Each structure stands twice: as structure tokens, then as C-alpha cells.
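Late entry, written up from scratch paper. The run itself happened at the end of the previous shift, but nothing got recorded in the book at the time, so transcribing now.
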Amino acid sequence: MDRFPHAANVDFHSPLDLSKAAVAVLDAEGNISGWGASAQRLLGHSPEDVLGKPAGRLLAAAPEQRLSALCGTRKPRSTVLDLSCRDGRNLRAAVTLSPLEHLGVAATVVVAAELEALRGWEAQLALLQGMATESTVGLTIFDTDMRVVWGNVSTDLELAGVAQYVGRPAADLFPEGEFISRHHPPDEDQIMEHVMTTGEPIMGMHYRGRAPADPVREHVWSCSYHRMVDARGELLGLFEESLDITDRYRAQERLSLLVRAGKRIGASLDVRRTAAELADVAVPQLADEVLVDLPPAVIEGRQPPTGSAPGHSLLRMHGRTPEEFRTSPVSYPPSSPQAQSLGTGRLVVDASPPEAPGGEGSAPSHSCLFVPLLTRNTVLGLATFRRSSNPDPFGPEEQTLAVELAERAAVGIDNARRYTSQHAATLVLQRSLLPQHLPEQSAVDVAYRYLPADSRVGVGGDWFDLIPLSGARVGLTVGDVVGHGMHAAATMGRLRATVRTLALLDLDPAELLTRLDGLVAQDSEPHGNDGLSDEALGVTCLYAIYNPVNGRCSWASAGHPPPIVADASGSVALSALAPGPPLGLGGLPYENVDLNLSSGSLVAFFTDGVVEDRRTDIDSGIDRLAHVLTWQRCPLEELCDRALSARPPGPQADDATLLLVRTRRLDADRVADLELPPDPAMVAHARTVAERQLEAWGLSELSFTAELVVSELVTNSIRYATGPVMLRLIWDRSLLCEVSDNAHTAPHLRRARRDDEGGRGLFLVAQMSQRWGTRYTSSGKTIWAELAIP
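Output as recorded:
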């Protein structure tokens, strides 16, 4: 398809050219003696109508005397005449009359053309002349051998005289220049060859180099190439249009650099990476090297120092990744431009800087900009923009650009500093809310993993805990708060503390979740404006109690995945009971699930982040975790690693918490039970049995204290119970004394007055034991006390 379909209508021949103009011949008397076909086309008169007749008849308004005067001259004359057309129109025409004399015969040749067409042609000529002499667009003509033929005035000025390049190849014009547009071959000879061969023009190529007339400053031109052919279509060569777009190009570069800076600088929320991002953006477009110096306090996330001497005790950033990162100390004298920039908070230009401190290995600088990293009227540090290979000094626009980049970097560094400070505070909060280590228990071996989904924040809403309970039992809990970050962590901390408090009341799992549900529902009411109630609306929790004496595990769930159990042989069992509603919804009861576990059973408590993923369903994740548990003979730490490494790779959408528990059973010879009738005489028998059992266990040193505690607890139960009383002694990490009866009234510790006959029993128990308490059962209550084993 023709690129320029109307190019054939463009004609640079003059309308008065004999190939186009109307031509007639007048004799000495002014009569028409010759009439061409072109004259007939212009005016419409046929030769029969005009030959032999006076030419004055063709004039529309001028008298014949004027025509006679024009024809009588001996020199060619040009004028404008109004001519009459055959159709009655008047045509204003440009007319040239040229006298002829041959062998004594006088005649005049008249050439005429429409005046408007002539004026248009003259305008085209003026355009061509302007492009050759006044246009800022450089025009250069090359022959078929791609050698310079001609250049207009603009080209002449850029080349400091085009005449010296006539006949030389194009490569000689700008020997060190290069094309920076990459959508065509970068070699100029290839571009010219392509244009002359195919006839397809190449336009808008950006070329960078130094003009012979201005060898110091680098310029950028927009170049276009067009093939030239003659009237017969034969190749003459090609011409090049070049327009100096240096200022526009640099303005576009500055704009694109600012856009890139807005996307990149400060995106990492890391002080060190933000400094590297500033260098990545500014090099090499603005400077050959960018150095960033910061006080140690800013790098560590603390407030920048105030009142210190400018340029004192700074650290220079090196490296663009955490692995490469290092710092080197720098210090600037008070009289240095760096100290001046830091002290005044303004840009300082140094056109001939010495070697920068800490700049070993750096090339000498031709020009430097020292820009303070300023935000909220606080100087955070100093950015140095250096040019070594580029000899051009920093211009005003580049100085403004450097200041804006430094401002963006300062905001990013300050945000990163604040984030570092808040992140550290959040991590302290998280560590204070989650257990740093789980207490060792005879009932279970445990291992755990906690992986927040937001690795940048490092905290989330998951929690877990192991709570020692009376009777050598342990409470185990895992929970999940929707969301991540500070709010989720704070909500998690409150709920974990609440669960621990309720667990120490010796509530069974369903009762504990019921009470916790009520507390969460209160926190979620609309009047709560602490920012934590939203997270509380999405809370799940599982609580379990394991008793090593009988191997029974009771658990209840509030919207939380049930535990996975693998027995000692590796056989995996999944609970068929659906969890209750999440906390805070209310309306439905929670149910206990009782399991009898053999010694060595493996129980996995987990949050949905361990088994659920965007790419797979939760059932696949549970099967994956269950398969890991079949290796239950492996150490618990290894099993934790296996379970989490089995998750799909890539970023995770939710926090992942895994608590693995391997159960133990207390040996039967470490538990002694004695059933007593409700007879006060049985108190002495209980003391005797306790003494003999302690002697059998080798704990005779505890006999006196244990007999006293047993005596007081049994006496108290026999006094208020209506049925048999059960005494249990458990030899664990401490000596546990438990007395159970069918009464539901709880004993209270009080200080007896001097004249009181009783009321001192529980006071003595409290003084003699590490801790004591009461727990309720379906048939009554149990009073227990723990005695430290010496």
C-alpha cells in the first residue's frame, strides 16, 4: 500500500512552465497568430474562435492600449490581467510577454497561468528556501553511496561547516554518536541501506552524540530518513531530517525517572534497601554514582540525633541486598561542603570536588551534588550525586531533580525507620504474648512451630499454649484470630491470657469455651472502638485436657479444626465431630469429645494455615499432615519441620501454627487410691496409708508434711460430704494429694481468730504446699495440693 497516496499531486514545476502554462503568439499588430491547446484548456476558446483576431478582445477590463504597450516593449514583461473565458467567467491570470524578432518579422509570445496557482507555487518555493536557510530542522542529502552531498543552514551550524564533509560518509559526521532507539538496526549505514532498498522511510530515531560545533555538551536528535528519486523514478539517494530534542528528551527522562522513583524508592520499608533504591534509580541517568550517609540511629530505627555536629559519626551504605549490606564510617570537617549541606539543610554544588571520604576505588569526580535527606524539618543524612565519566556539570534542572529524588528517599527512609521501630515493638509484644518455652511435663512431650503469613511484620493472630493443671494433667490450646499485625496480635494476647485464666479454674473444655465465647461477644459489641473488636469477630479456638493417670483426653472446639491423632503404631484417626461455632457468635453449645490415648500417641493441634492453601483444599492439607504423622516415631522437632515443609511453596495467605504432643502415661505404681467411708475415725487410717506409701516411694522426708495435708483435707471432706471420700496420691515432679467427695460446696481460706476452735486447716495446707485449689467434677469436687519434693 502506498504510504503517501496523494504524493503524485505534489508538483514543484512553475505554473508558467511551458509544459503547463497557456501559450499564445501575437503578431506585430496584436492579433493572435498562434493558439496552443493549453490556452484552450485555460480559457475555453478554440483556435477557430481567436486566430487572426485582436488579442484585446480577450481582455475583460483593460483597454487595448495597455496590451499594445506591453507588446511593444523590447524586453520580456510580466503583469496580471483579467482574461475573459468562453463561458463568461473572468480569470485573473499571471501573464508573461516575451518579444521575438526573426528575419524582420515581429511577434510576441504570451505565457499565462492562473494567478492563484502561481501564488501557491511561490509559497512552496518560499517554504523550500526557509527549510534550507532558516529552519531549525537539519536537512542533509546523501547520494547512493551514502556520502554527503548537501546540508542546509541548520546542518551547517551543527557541523561547523558542512562543506568540509561533502563527499564523506555519514559515519564521519558524529564518530562517537550512537542510536538510542532500539526498534531499528542501531547502525546508521544499515538504516540508510534499508531506506534506499525498500523505499520505506524510517522516522523518529533518537541519536545521541556531540556536535562538532559543541563538543562539550551531549545532544540528542530525532532523526528521520527518506529515499529520493527523480521524475523517472530512478534513485538519487536519500535525505536525513534531524531535530535537536536535547531539552525535551532530558525533560522526558527526568519525568520518567521521577515516575520510576515513585514506584521504587521506599517500597521496601527497609532503610538499607531504600538507600540502594535511590542509587538504582539515579545511576546512570542522573549521576555516575550515588552515596548515602546516615547516622547509626536512623539505620537502627531510632530518632536521628539532634544537636550533634554536622557530618560527624555517619555510616555510608554499601550493598543492595541484606547479604551484601555493610557500612563504613565517614566524617566530614566542619568547613567541608558536605557539612555545610547537613548544617543548612540545603543543596551544595561542588564543581571540582576532592576525593570523597570513604571513596576508595572510586574514580575522580568532575562534579558533585551534596543533598541533605530532609523530612519534616529533620535531616536524616546526606546523599551525594557524583559524576566521573560524564564531564557535563549538573545543570539547574538536574539539581532540582536531585533534590526531589533526595526528598522521596528521605520520606522512604523515615517511613522505613518508623516501620523498623514499630516492627521491633510489635515483635516485643508478640514475644511477650506467646510462650517463649513450654514447661516440661511428665504427661507429654511437645514441639511447636509458629510461622506468620506476613513475614515483613513477623506477627499474626495465631496462638498456642500448654497449661499445667492439677492432678498432673495438662491443658493444651490452639487459637486463630483473623488478620495479621498489631491488632491481631493484641487480640490474640488477650484471648490467650483469658484461656489460661479460665483453664486454671479447672473448667472442662466445653465450659471454658462457653465462658470465652461470652467474653468475646461482649468485646465485639458496636460500642467497642479500640480497633480490636473486628478481629474478635473471627476467632477460633480449640482447648483440650490430657490426664496422664488414665490416658483420657477431652477436647472441645469453637470453629477450629479438630486435632489429628496417631496412636503408637502410626495409625491415624480423624475426629468425626464437627466443631462448634467460632467465638463471639453464640447460640449453639460446645461439646466435649473424650478419647482414650495409649502411651506414645501423637496428637497434632494446628491452625488452618498449616493445612489450607489457595491452590489446594483443606482436605488435601489434612491428608498431607496425617501422612506426616505416620512417621510418629521420629523426633517431634523433625516432624514439625516435615509438616511445614510439606506445604506448597510460595507466599502463604494465613499464619501457620503447629503444636505436636506425644502422650505419656504415669506408671500404675506412681498412683495410689484409697476410698474412705465418711467416718472421722478414717482420718488416722488415711494418715497411716499415706505414710506407708511415701516410704515405699522413698519420700519419707515428706511424711510429716504430707500426713498433715492429708489429715486436713480428709477431715474437711468427711465433715461436709454425705458419701465416700476418695484419697489419691500421685508421685510426679511433685507429690500431689487429692481428696474427692460428692459435695459441691467449695472450701474457703480464712484467717481464724484466737478464740476460734477451727478454720485453720486450709490455712495450714496453703502454707505447707506449693499451691492448692479446688476443681469440680460431675459428681462433686476435688481439693488438691502440691508438695515440692526435696
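The chain has a mean pLDDT of 84.
(Scratch paper discarded after transcription.)
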